[in-house]
């Protein structure tokens, strides 16, 4: 007669799959559904990495040929456990509305201290055919340059990763669309990626010249003649850094990362702004960017940085909805207190319901 297994080992055997799954949830608290597969339209340029007949496709999609393909559309986003639900929804929206979704390559930047294998497993599980790479960001080196701002979430070093894309991404990537994790697209990413950037500009973004530009800086900057002259001969306007098209070749040539860091170093000594990673970008680029139609950043849907109250859309057409501000749609939906526009984010949410089981 076979000896009976102790109860502990019996339970361990029964729950092997659940225990395996818990390794992922130890660093990523949510579980996500698999997204539908999105295919190129017949008019799209194709490369071998989109060929479903290649059995080794999944193992080779991050090689140099894929990243450096000149027809690829490059998108950069940050990736972490706290905002991964927003990132997943953003990716779904990009692929769903793209005319050539299989030609989009995602560059995810994650903290070097994060569990990159768990992040990779989560993305791969929801998007088995996604072309992507994860880049470690040494946030500890940037932390020393960061000053406290009006909202603690803005002080996360990963918020500053957008300043280092030219160093993190492969040199063959000459243009990238940077997107925050709290947005969804309802239009073709190729239109945004193809934004013309004149030779004397480095990036393109929607500008908002009716905003009170002076409010983004402290009186210390405006009362100092040498500092306020920074904006001389520039029609400096506010732009939101959550949606940008960046010419990485020009950025690298003039080392704009160093210029941003110099303003951050000055901020540590003189306190010339209050709002996280945005003001250094404004100091370097405001008044010297290529304009993008406002439809590509219907921003501020998360309310202000203090209360996160509901807001309506700006007048005009919409290609991208952006929940910048304190309120995030997933948090308000979970709390049962959604804003009306949060219903436009919900269809892209891949979060599995609690206690759901895969068939």
TrEMBL record:
Pfam families: Glyco_transf_8. It is a single-pass type II membrane protein. InterPro entries: Glyco_trans_8 (IPR002495), Glycosyltrans_8_dom-fam (IPR050748), Nucleotide-diphossugar_trans (IPR029044). GO terms for cellular component: Golgi apparatus. SUPFAM superfamilies: Nucleotide-diphospho-sugar transferases. Belongs to the glycosyltransferase 8 family. PANTHER family: GALACTURONOSYLTRANSFERASE-LIKE 1-RELATED, GLYCOSYLTRANSFERASE 8 DOMAIN-CONTAINING PROTEIN. This is Hexosyltransferase. It comes from Sesamum alatum. The lineage of its organism: Eukaryota, Viridiplantae, Streptophyta, Embryophyta, Tracheophyta.
